[in-house]
Design goal:
Helices cover 25% and strands 18% of the residues. It is built from 12 helices and 16 strands. Strands 1, 2, 3, 4, 5, 6, 7, 10, 11 and 12 form a 10-stranded mixed beta sheet that branches. Helix 5 runs parallel beside helix 7. The longest helix is centred in the middle third of the chain and has 31 residues. It is globular, with a radius of gyration of 21 Å.
Length: 471
């Protein structure tokens, strides 16, 4: 276990209270309230990789309000999503089960009613539930409203140049006003860092660039046609545009948290902030997401904050977004005892009663078949069917369709550029056996090597193409 605790009044002084195999510490102010005696605000930012968040990258100024939240709570430096794109990642987060178990693997898979969502579990415990979303891939039509008393989709973007964060803020504050006199679970989803990357003058980070990419068509599908033309400065310009989007979103998140304060709810609201996945900027010859299992797409921020009840700390042990659901239910007067989570509860560790699990084995997956247009022509390009296992410094990736393997030492090669695959060595064999065992009963349902048999109308096809989901 590796944890750094930060005294609230000495935020610039780092005090080691725990190290590997070290001691525990109880948060000031006692244990966390029971789930039924507080509010929970879950904020998810679409496409915000950990490498672009200030509190996880000293010297980066993209997220001052998120950084402020991190100073008041526990920030996890090694949090990972289950999948590299929205639908499977969010299904896993909301259920505590892998995408393969939820049945949400492919584009436009609905969340089957057999899944029990966080919102349903909160509602069973007497809390009001509200959702505010800004992406049509997690809308009510696809079942992601399961368990929510209200599910506001007014901020869902309809084209690639839409700006949604102010609408999300407005809808979320209206819900806070409405629910302030009762305990609630609220899910708020911000979309703007997702492509198309838009310039925000008040958060300018691109004035330095005067090259040709500034005049390109910046739709993600068009950018991918010109990858060979992108030089280092052009790539940095796109990354900085993306960071402007993050800064703009951060500003709106800050206003939402300010409203929580204004209503007098902050001290009794557990705030969890994370992202569904990250974004690639040519680290592996790709822009966007969906297509690989590198940390640029899987490594996400995770912050948990409840001032006065949760000691500010930094946790370096690996955790998964699959842990959020069992952690919250672990705080309930009536914990879930008849269900097998794919994540683990961090409730005891957050309160200082247990150590954080170290040297964990985490699994990740993506099954992204080629789709078809109205004429039946594949339009998503080559399908992607990958699984991965990580433990300690190692990550092993299996290309299920072609039975090819890649191995990376993330300690020596954090960018995951040097493939060390070999079948030799006990660690490698153990990882491979674990991954093959995990795949059993799952990959048979991925549709490996087959195009996805879902026809798209022209309007939907246009929306998906503008966001980079199909070519």
């Amino acid at each position: 276990m590796s944890v750094k605790f930060f005294p609230p009044k000495l935020l610039f002084a780092v005090v080691f209270l725990a190290a590997c195999g070290g001691c525990r510490s109880t948060p000031p102010g006692g244990d966390l309230p029971a789930l039924e005696d507080m509010n929970v605000l879950l904020i998810v930012v679409d496409t915000m990789g950990a490498g672009h968040v200030g509190c996880l990258n000293p010297g980066l100024d993209t997220t001052p309000r998120i950084d402020e939240l991190a100073k008041s709570g526990v920030r996890f430096t090694r949090a990972f999503s289950a999948a590299p794109w929205t639908q499977p990642s969010m299904s896993a987060l909301m259920t505590g089960t892998t995408p393969s178990r939820t049945g949400v693997l492919h584009l436009f898979d609905s969340l089957p009613p057999r899944n029990v969502t966080l919102a349903e579990r909160f509602r069973e415990r007497g809390l009001a539930t509200a959702g505010v979303v800004s992406h049509f891939l997690i809308d009510a039509k696809l079942g992601f409203n399961q368990g929510f008393d209200s599910y506001d989709e007014s901020a869902v973007v309809n084209h690639h140049r839409a700006i949604s964060s102010p609408k999300v803020y407005q809808a979320a504050t209206a819900d806070l006003d409405r629910l302030q006199d009762q305990h609630f679970f609220m899910f708020v989803h911000f979309f703007d860092p997702h492509s198309h990357y838009l310039h925000h003058p008040e958060f300018d980070r691109t004035a330095w660039y005067h090259g040709p990419v500034r005049n390109w068509d910046l739709k993600i599908t068009e950018l991918r046609k010109r990858l060979d033309e992108l030089d280092e400065d052009g790539t940095r310009y796109l990354r900085d545009l993306y960071r402007e989007e993050i800064a703009f979103t951060d500003h709106n998140i800050g206003m939402l948290l300010d409203h929580l304060d204004e209503l007098g709810l902050r001290d009794n609201t557990l705030v969890i902030l994370t992202a569904d996945h990250g974004e690639e900027f040519m680290e592996h010859r790709w822009i966007g997401h969906t297509r690989n299992l590198f940390d640029t797409l899987l490594h996400v921020p995770l912050i948990v904050s409840l001032p006065g009840r949760l000691a500010p700390a930094e946790v370096d042990d690996p955790v998964s977004l699959l842990d959020i659901a069992p952690t919250l239910m672990g705080l309930s007067h009536t914990p879930v005892t008849d269900f097998r989570w794919d994540g683990v509860s961090l409730a005891g560790a957050l309160q200082g009663h247990e150590e954080y699990p170290s040297d964990r084995v985490l699994f990740h997956e993506v099954a992204y078949p080629a789709n078809k247009d109205e004429a039946g022509t594949p339009v998503a390009g080559r399908g992607t069917f990958l699984s991965a296992v990580t433990q300690g410094k190692w990550k092993l990736i299996h290309d299920v369709e072609h039975d090819q393997w890649s191995l990376f030492d993330r300690a020596a090669d954090p960018g995951e550029y040097r493939d060390l695959w070999t079948r030799e060595g006990p660690e490698v064999r153990t990882l491979q056996e674990r991954l093959l065992g995990w795949e059993t009963g799952k990959v048979e349902h991925w549709g490996v090597g087959k195009p996805l048999d879902k026809r798209l109308d022209k309007d939907l096809e246009k929306r998906l193409r503008s966001l980079g989901y199909i070519r």
